[in-house]
Structures are given as structure tokens and as C-alpha cells.
Amino acid sequence: MADVNRGNRPLSPHMSIYRPQLTSITSILTRITGNAMGITALLIVWWFLAAATNLDYFETVDGILTGWFGDLVMTLSVLGLWYHTLAGIRHLIWDQGVGLDLGPAYILGWSCLGGSVVLTILTIIIV
């Protein structure tokens, strides 16, 4: 058996030498936005429960969720919702075997990122 010095070489590419690609970043963002929407759903449930409990508690929770912090969280949630939706559409396109080459994959990735920002701005303007 050959004497292999396994201690001097990495087992897999490490983050310090791996160059992130658009497809990997968008995949990570899809997971992050999915989890963030779960947290946002809990905040909305908290708001509903406060409304069902009593007026003083509701005013406290409503003050938090309609203040600057709540506005920031809800705006970022809308951004995450739009991004997650567009990324899901992208995956439906990929499930059909379309757009799997590098060029179309990058176009779809940038479309998800840019489209989510544009749709968030439109949502804020309309609502």
C-alpha cells in the first residue's frame, strides 16, 4: 500500500479558496428566505394572538410591528417572499430541463435577484 500523506492536503475545497458562484449564492438565499418567512409568519401570528388577548397587549405588539423595526422586518419579508417565489419559478423551469446551461442559469439567477427588488418596490408603492 502506498504511503499517502493525508495531513498536508485539504479533504475538500474550503471557503477561503472556493469562489462562490451565482447559482450557489441564489441557492443559499432561497434557503435563507424560506426560513425567514417562517419567522415572519410567527410574528404575524403573535400579532393576531395579541389582538385576541386584550387591548393593552395588542397595542404593545402593534407598536412594535408597525414601528420602524416592524416596517423594516416586513419590508425585508416582502423582499424575501418575492425572491423565494421567483426562485421557485426558476426551479420549475429547471425541472422541465430548460435553462440548465451556464448562460441561461445566470440569466435566471440575475432575474430572480433583480425581479425581487423591482416587485418589492412595486408592492411598497401599491400597498
Specify the CATH homologous superfamily: Fumarate reductase/succinate dehydrogenase, transmembrane subunit
- The SSE order reads HHHH
Classification by helices and strands: mainly alpha
Mind telling me the CATH class? Mainly Alpha
| Oligomeric status | single chain
Number of helices: 4
Low-confidence segments: none
User: Which descriptor suits the 3D outline?
Assistant: extended
Description of the molecule:
With 127 residues, this protein is mostly helical. It has helices at residues 22-53, 55-65, 68-95, 102-126. Helix 3 packs antiparallel against helix 4 (102-126). It is extended.
Topology record:
Layout: H1 22-53, H2 55-65, H3 68-95, H4 102-126
Features:
127 residues, 4 helices
Quick synopsis:
With 127 residues, the chain is an all-alpha fold. Helices cover 76% and strands 0% of the residues.
